[in-house]
Amino acid sequence: MTKFALTVTCDSARGIVAAIAGFLAEHGCNITDSSQFDDTETGRFFMRVSFTSEKGATLDKMSDDFSAISSGFGMDFAFHDEAVRMKVIIMVSRFGHCLNDLLYRWRIGALPIDIVAVISNHMDYQKVVVNHDIPFHCIPVTKANKPDAEARIMEVVDATGADLIVLARYMQVLSDRMCQQMSGKIINIHHSFLPSFKGANPYKQAYERGVKLIGATSHYVTADLDEGPIIEQDIARVTHAQSPADYVSLGRDVESQVLARAIHAHIHRRVMLNGNKTIVFPASPGSYASERMG
Amino acid sequence: MTKFALTVTCDSARGIVAAIAGFLAEHGCNITDSSQFDDTETGRFFMRVSFTSEKGATLDKMSDDFSAISSGFGMDFAFHDEAVRMKVIIMVSRFGHCLNDLLYRWRIGALPIDIVAVISNHMDYQKVVVNHDIPFHCIPVTKANKPDAEARIMEVVDATGADLIVLARYMQVLSDRMCQQMSGKIINIHHSFLPSFKGANPYKQAYERGVKLIGATSHYVTADLDEGPIIEQDIARVTHAQSPADYVSLGRDVESQVLARAIHAHIHRRVMLNGNKTIVFPASPGSYASERMG
Amino acid sequence: MTKFALTVTCDSARGIVAAIAGFLAEHGCNITDSSQFDDTETGRFFMRVSFTSEKGATLDKMSDDFSAISSGFGMDFAFHDEAVRMKVIIMVSRFGHCLNDLLYRWRIGALPIDIVAVISNHMDYQKVVVNHDIPFHCIPVTKANKPDAEARIMEVVDATGADLIVLARYMQVLSDRMCQQMSGKIINIHHSFLPSFKGANPYKQAYERGVKLIGATSHYVTADLDEGPIIEQDIARVTHAQSPADYVSLGRDVESQVLARAIHAHIHRRVMLNGNKTIVFPASPGSYASERMG
Amino acid sequence: MTKFALTVTCDSARGIVAAIAGFLAEHGCNITDSSQFDDTETGRFFMRVSFTSEKGATLDKMSDDFSAISSGFGMDFAFHDEAVRMKVIIMVSRFGHCLNDLLYRWRIGALPIDIVAVISNHMDYQKVVVNHDIPFHCIPVTKANKPDAEARIMEVVDATGADLIVLARYMQVLSDRMCQQMSGKIINIHHSFLPSFKGANPYKQAYERGVKLIGATSHYVTADLDEGPIIEQDIARVTHAQSPADYVSLGRDVESQVLARAIHAHIHRRVMLNGNKTIVFPASPGSYASERMG
Predict the structure, then answer these.
(1) Residues of A in contact with B54 (CB under 8 A)
(2) CA D110, CA D174: separation in Å to the nearest integer?
(3) Quick check: D139 pLDDT over 90?
(4) Domain parsing of chain B, residue ranges
(5) How far apart are the first and last CA of chain A?
(6) Most C-beta atoms within 10 A of its C-beta, which of A80, B287, D168, D286?
(7) Is B226 assigned a catalytic role?
(8) What residues of C are in contact with residue D282 (Cβ under 8 Å)?
């Protein structure tokens, strides 16, 4: 039995759910989970439906047949086979906690993705990546070689057919061009509770402001630094007795989890863009479960 | 424009969502929010649909018409008019924080209910209740008069037509008979993280065990003390430096919020019973907003 | 047996703790709780000591005797009698949840303060305040009368001898002059996770930015709007399915608790100013416990 | 400059802090952090003092000199050199998330310990441990060989001079004898919010009870299974839509963090036993900071 997901966006109108549910029933599909959101401010409708097919439905056939419905409502839609894993590139600089965390989740199948490459501007994590049998690309970045470096990164993206780039504490700013080209396909973790403390040294900024909670924010990367649509955020409590270096340690756990949750939502097609905001539908039953003990 | 909710439970089967969505579309209704859950363990299906009618649908007509669908799937279902407020009785003993909290939420319309009575076995809160223009019934309970006292409580229930009893730190155990008679209609707040520390003095029990978090649990009342289906739970951090009397204070905030959240979910028909567990669907957009400033 | 607190600030030096502890022992005092902080960045030392006296020590005598020690270390210090309650003025505009919350905590003795006045620029809460036998002052504020209104506020401050002003959702900006005059004696609650979303309509700002957590911040008021030293912060989770009006409701609980915690810390002399930051020492054992059941 | 910690327990009495602080001042030591707790229920006093020596104090000399003071108050005490790392054995069965997490923290110096061995009853983590240049001991456990296996474990303990055993999801119950022999030196992580759901399959138990939060508890191991003194606990939110297998995934993050926090507190001598409860003093400034970037 195969599991599928359908994502739909269109203007709100009566009968959308009936049309979608009717279509799936006619095609012998069982809806196993469904979430929707009507944005009354913009008049846009968003839906994610999980379903199984008992009749061996193929995505191509479904997509073709669905066009009759989608055209009536002016829908953007996509069918996804949950068994097809997203191809993901992880990029990292010198802080490796998110990388370590993601590799573990990937290893036990808690993040069902294919990691097709790890790219870094440093050599620190070559060994650990290679031990996981994942191709490691060291692409140093300097002021002088920046465009070249990015071209090399894009070569890896093209060669691997990557669906998603995860910036797991990658400390180089990407060019506007790359941001646009990969729009909605690059997820970053920023070590502050955005919109507070954008840019460099957010923990130091937080320390100097004297906040009582530090945070982390995972968001899609856009050409505006740290301004992209937020997917997930969380915080940790700090006191006067913690230094910026303490914040770095306390923040590691928050960053790792916030990034992992954002990726989990993205790969299960639970995130939908709504202008500069995101809709993040709840996880489907069983979707957190890992594939292997570990 | 009227807002309605439909709740449905039945055995899982293909086409349920299509049938429901189709029915609503045919009756000129717009689905504004929808949540569903398939319990793969029990094979039961649960759904809550919010919708508006542009054609002046009446609940009776909808219910009648829906029977064609419901009988096919063997559905338990109910249509609810969101403009019709539940009639609620609050019961309280000597700790008044939940009462105070609920009265405030009710006053500003954050909990759209009709409080038809406050019943207490003590006189402490007579004045505050009367100041809110709510009927106050003092029904003292002793070992000797227990059945009589409960009969008087049930008289108030009957006379007011109450849909829900909230035990807002009411410290008397209700009889099995009353629990069964009002099954699924009595919500309690217990000041522990159930199933830990059932019964009396949970904060003292927690202190003696040396836990690092204290909790509160809101649940439907059943004949088994503190064993009913859990609706909501939350916790607060404590340290070695807090005494049981400190726990009581720190716990007040948790109890008040957990109880209010459980009531919010119940009155919006977001809670569905699934054996001794509950399904609690997410809040519909706008449902937290209060009706009045305050 | 009387409980006292001593707060001390000075430049770091060897022997401070020994000098203080020795002084207290010589004066027949038992240290029951003690917290200290060395700010290695600024070289400043901060300490709070709780103690009891078995020999009927008086604050005046202690202060006089302590000058021998304090002058040697260049200490700022103060002895406090925990039985002497701070005189507090609560100011509120049209959102009354913090007021309601504070009144309840005060009523049961969970916040051991004397509320000497409630001041509002509206009449909404006159009745509830009067029901608590607290003097209510309605001082409307317009562009035209602002200086006069503030003069009237300061008259109440002077007449009552207030030690602390709590801005419990008071929506008027105080003048620089008043901020300076009452420096360290005005606590505000701002309904955002500062430094994000300063100024007006923070929930709307948060909604438009698409954050996944909303927050509240309690801070001392300075002439820089929403820039004063932060005492306490907390957050609540929101999703795409919540509107700004939902945020207002979800934020109420966070605001009420954050403000109450900040006041609790302030009145127990647990907050010490360190430049534009605060040191907030942990609560002493038993200090959360309320004086009365309720 | 060396950093030291002094831990003291004795019956409460006037002058303890003065005696300790005076002693340290006389020995040319600067107190950098200090926490104390008076248990008014038992009359016991607990203190932890961090200090630096400018005069090259040695632990032996300090201990000897301190005996004059300690004997007067009947103190149990210990001086610790913060530069001397605890020798730690990690034990693990088939779930490796805590191991992976601890290895990462150890690698970057966020947990300043010496991992002298990893012991497992399975082979799963041999490679990862060896890649970290840590001795790996596979000691299978069966009903038949249990005493022998434990004897082999104790041989490793003796041979390495381990100060602490961390049960990082080690699924075998240790004998009473070993628990007593290593009393206060074995830290376990249990995947429930104790005292709820002791023993086997706590996530399944939690699922069946229908709780809305799952938890993890780190505690010292005693002969009573899952009844030892609790060091740290935390929780994660679950909904009806999560299965026991989902709980396992969501619980991993909580378990890893709770265990790491408990170890952090233990190795910094912040945990003191108080009957079957623990005192956990706040972390000293800078103690979370890692020694290396990573």
Answers:
(1) 14
(2) 29
(3) yes
(4) 2-81, 86-280
(5) 25
(6) D168
(7) yes
(8) 282
| Burial class of residue B172 (count of CB atoms within 10 Å of its CB; 0-12, 13-18, 19+) | middle
DSSP reduced 3-state for B93: coil
- Chain segment D100-127, per-residue pLDDT in tens: 999 999 999 999 999 999 999 999 999 9
C204 neighbors C214 (Cβ within 8 angstroms): no
Provide the 8-state DSSP code for B211: -
Mean pLDDT of D37-64: 92
CA distance A90 to chain C (A): 24
* Residue C42 pLDDT > 80: yes
Predicted complex ipTM: 0.97
Rg (alpha carbons) of chain B, rounded to whole number: 20
Give the fold, CATH level 3, of A86-280.
Rossmann fold (3.40.50)
Chain D residues whose beta carbon lies within 8 Å of the beta carbon of residue B215: 213
Residue of C nearest to B99 (CA): C294
Tell me the DSSP string of C5-21.
EEEEEEE--TTHHHHHH
- Omega before D112 cis (within 30°)? no
Residue A133 pLDDT class (50, 70, 90 cuts): very high
Decide: D4 and D53 in contact? Cβ < 8 Å: yes
D76 burial (CB, 10 Å; 0-12 / 13-18 / 19+) is exposed
Superfamily of domain covering B2-81: ACT domain (3.30.70.260)
Condensed to tens digits (0 to 9), the pLDDT of residues B4-58 reads 999 999 999 999 999 999 999 999 999 999 999 999 999 999 999 999 998 777 8
CB A233 within 8 A of CB A216: yes
Residues D63, D66, D72, D73: is their CA dihedral positive or negative? negative
Q: Do C18 and D18 touch (CB under 8 A)?
A: yes
What is the least distance, in Å, from the CA of B61 to any CA of chain D?
32
So which residues of D are the catalytic ones? 226
